[in-house]
Amino acid sequence: MKTLALVTAFPPGSGSLNEYALHLANAFARRSDLDRIIILADKMDEPLPELDLNPKIEVRRVWTFNDMLSVHKITKAIDICKPDNVLFNLQTASFGDKEIPAALGLLAPALTQLKGHGTGVLMHNLIDAVDLAQTNLANQKLRQKIVELAGTLITKLMLKAGYMSVTLDSFHEILTSKYNAKNAFMVPHGSFPIASTLQTYRLSERSNRIVTMGKFGTYKKLERLIFAIQNINKTRSEEDKISLIIGGSDHPATPGYLEGLAKMFKSDDAIKFHGYVAEEDVEGFFKQARLAVFDYDSTTGSSGVLHQAAIYGTPPVYPMMGDFIDVTEREGLSGFHYTPLDQDSLEQSIEQGLSKAKTAQSMADNNLDVSKGVTMDTVSAAQLRLMRRVSQGRFLKMRASDKKAVLLMNKMA
């Protein structure tokens, strides 16, 4: 294989999975068996200079978020660039936050395979694993049912691609049990930079800063976390008060959410709204913080932000639910956890993270060590091997246990 096309959101655009795509593309570019990586990316609302990338990487912006013609534009661009293989880096809302353009975009992998291009899908979530009652469809039972049925159909069609890889064992179980998929594989999420090359600060050298990052307003809300920080600060002196740095943007379904919160809490100097965190600012965002908090009402996949916190030595605070349990048990990441949706439990967990210095540092060190094990180079090797098997007309057999999965990934590296 000489040329790989990667269909994905890509920075400096701010679409979902754009940072993941950058690190994956860089990992592909480091390989000697690839000469060219063509990124078929999303168009930006406002044109920005493209990143300074490895000369192997070429970015072509061909599709638009919420455009019902994205699938046509993507398949046409693939026909033009004639890659040896195509990899789609996706989640369910990659192509839109409206049901029809989102669903139509997800048809692209099957159509690409049908047109004769060896195609793989790296899927970060599944509709089947989302609790729709905790999303913006909370009080819309009919729409929930429609989305569930459409999600099942779309997943079946996506499995018509050469293969689909997912980042969690629970997702793989869904694909094999519900869909009887023979071309579904679990490939770990991977850590972004190579953790062994990073210089991180000890927690004792960091300020009383807590961070959170994401697209907020649906199942990721901030009120409970903000109230928790305010309650904790009531018991602290001025010099010991903690600050909460909120990085990220509104979820497309809840425009204006962060602006409204910023106005509501403008008098509290401890609550700071950072806005979107550009790729070059991510390291500094986490390396100065003592904790990274994840307060979700539900989960929809392996958290890239959780892995970012891990590689920068920032212990996470997360609810014991769904994918957080899956990721931490499978990958060995550790952190302070609390009862989901419970503000008192969240406060206690944050207090523990700040007061139990030795425990927190041990978690940070553990997560750094874990991050060195499955890097993006490991992930890129696994994806390329799967794509070669697609080109050869055969598939790897899925391993039977978590340990075998890790061994398989290491062999692929």
Task: List the keywords.
Rossmann fold; seven-stranded parallel sheet; 15 helices; 413 residues; disordered C terminus; six-stranded parallel sheet; 17% strand
Question: Topology, pairings included?
Answer:
Layout: E1 3-7, H1 18-29, E2 36-42, E3 57-63, H2 70-81, E4 85-90, H3 99-105, H4 108-114, E5 118-123, H5 141-158, E6 163-166, H6 169-177, E7 184-186, E8 209-216, H7 223-234, E9 243-250, H8 257-264, E10 271-275, H9 282-287, E11 291-293, H10 304-311, E12 316-319, H11 322-331, E13 336-338, H12 343-355, H13 357-371, H14 376-391, H15 402-412
Parallel strand pairs: 1-2, 1-4, 2-3, 4-5, 5-6, 6-7, 8-9, 8-11, 9-10, 11-12, 12-13
Helix pairs in contact: 1-14, 7-12, 14-15
Low-confidence stretches: 395-413
Secondary-structure element pattern, one letter each: EHEEHEHHEHEHEEHEHEHEHEHEHHHH
- Shape summary: globular
Briefly note the CATH topology name of the largest domain. Rossmann fold
CATH architecture of the largest domain: 3-Layer(aba) Sandwich
Major β-sheet annotation: 7 strands, parallel
**SS-based class:** alpha/beta
What is the quaternary state of this protein?
Answer: single chain
Give the strand order of the largest sheet, numbering strands 1, 2, ... along the chain.
3-2-1-4-5-6-7
Distance between the termini: 16 Å
> CATH H level of the largest domain: which superfamily?
Glycogen Phosphorylase B
* Count of structural domains: 2
User: Number of DSSP helices?
Assistant: 15
What's the total number of strands? 13
**Approximately how much helix is present in the residues?**
25-40%
> Rg to the nearest angstrom?
21 Å
Per DSSP, what share of the residues sits in E-state strands of 2 or more residues? 15-25%
Average pLDDT, all residues? 86
CATH top level of the largest domain is Alpha Beta
